[in-house]
Amino acid sequence: MARAVDAFERELSSMRAGRAHPGLLERIAVEYYGAVTPLQHLASISVPEARLLLVQPFDKGIVGAVEKALLKADLGVSVRVDGSMLRVSVPALTEERRRSLVKQLRRQLEEEKVAIRNIRRDAVDQLKQAAKDHAISEDEERRGQTDVQKLTDQYIRKLDGVAEARERDIMTP
Fold this sequence. Notes:
single chain; alpha+beta; Gyrase A, domain 2; Topoisomerase I, Chain A, domain 4; 2 domains; two-stranded antiparallel sheet; 6 strands
């Protein structure tokens, strides 16, 4: 369940919220000498201004490949090559785009909640099987189910908190 929350947080970090942040480029993969490599392994990413990312490849020969990968990712940003570095401008979000991002966030939130509920179902099934095999008593099974439900509720509240904070971030101009 904790891994589901972590995965959700990572997913949200790559979601654009109007301000530039290195997590926006986290999922970009670059074709580098025949291998697909994450951008953060090939370049340093810095934020000199609120709406600008500076991507500086370690190998100056891959500037074109990085530019191609950034354009292919369709993040809604503009990319400009400046010598051996790339300037990635992050435009301000429109109200319509903000609402669209919030809808996407809620869809992802629901998917993660379903994943946590599936983990709960699997745990309850294991408890029932253990009780059926007489490995644990019926009382222990009921206590275990109650504990699993409490954990499920706790992690769903964490997901809701993460989503709520990110939604505020997205909706703030």
